[in-house]
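Hi P.,

Sorry for the delay on this. The queue was packed all week, but I finally got your sequence through. Input first:
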Amino acid sequence: MINWENVLATVFRERKNELVAVSDIDFVDINSLLGIETQKEQLLENTQKFIDSKEANHVLLWGERGCGKSSLVKAVFTKFYTKGLRVIEIGCDDLRFLPEIIDEIRKSEFKFIIFCDDMSFEDGSKEYKFLKPIMEGSIQKPPKNVLIYATSNRRHLLSEYKSDNVSTLVSQDEIHYSDATQEKISLSDRFGLWISFYQGSFNDYLKIVDFYFKDYTGDKEKLHELAKNYATLRASRSGRTAKQFYIAFKDSFK
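Then the structure:
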């Protein structure tokens, strides 16, 4: 049994079939996340309502890779954990264990974010079914102290492989989904708040680079040129790419 008074975050380990306390939490300062001001405002507002015991939505953060989806969830947790917010991270393949986890925390005085990073469902996957009772209830009401925050590269949480959607047909320019595919799409509709993430312009990318190199007083033009080349080679202008550039070249620009 987890002592949530002392434990701030846990991860579910299938081999142990239990929640394991996180000892080295990756706290993220929300002010360090640049270029996603609208997304920050949306998630902060929703989480504040949750903390205040007002109605709040389950959240799907979706969009391009490396644009800050997971970091934003961790930053919001960092901001609110002193107000009784706790996080349980669970893998997409382990969602079948959610009912037991919810039974354990339903009557807790703390508020919980169930965090599922990179949520998506391949052909034949049935784990998504275990989310419905938590998000909409069954014969038992959904818990008031639990929200699902999930990240995904896919808005509808579906596989992008043709073989995984062979029963989805197009006739007379209309899309006809199979029952299974339609059920998966309806899952994303149960998230009351969708927050989208996109790569910004090179100027947005360079602002993030400048944030990481804020102590550098040398030739900014040279720094920016190298940063642009790095982004071009990786075909990405995301915040993740800016951070990777900083790690790779910070010793060269002291």
